[in-house]
Amino acid sequence: MSDRLTARLGRALKIARNRFTQSEVSRPRDNQPGLSGIWIDVGAYVGDSTFKFAKENPALHVYAFEPNLKLAVQCWGLLPNFTVFPVAVAETDGFSDLYINANVGASSLLDFNPEGLRRWIGGQVLKVESKVRVPTTRLDTFMKAAGISRIEYLKIDAQGADLSVIKSAGERIRNIKKIMLEVATTPVSLYEGAASRTDVVNYLQSFGFALTDVEAQTHGQEENLTFLSENAI
Hints:
seven-stranded mixed beta sheet, three-stranded mixed beta sheet, 10 strands
């Protein structure tokens, strides 16, 4: 990571921590329960899933992680309670290769599985155009640095690496209330090393999460799974 980027990330985290202490962001709003506290958006793209909620709910603070710098900069400084980091969330703190796809929404820390790509409906438009080195952080590392004691909602769209994001929380997964992530349902995974649906469900259930909603997408090749913790601290 360059010295300029390191300094920029440090300043953003310091500002966010100083402006939005845990006591400030956790106060519920009577008319919008659940839309306060801390949300984490991993694979934020340009804020498609969470920006509008931050805009409408000042008691909510969203920390958005988007390692593709060209996408991340589009959301910088737009809202005081929507903080964007051009960083990937992974199981190790450091650096990793990011495979930039022609379809930017398919960019991932994981390379394609050739057989999975061949079988994928719509795979003809998926092509890796470049590979860039990006900084990575574990989720528990970030929670400690930001002084976050509890996450109300963790949304993950990490293109095959979703379980790695969850595992990066370590024991702090017990401080997460709700998780929504994406899994592939095809016999052969699109991405090399991607976890199966069964692996994801079993891991989360082992920590007391219950699967509460399933949404099919991408011609039935993927599902969005929503989990609620039965004992979040």
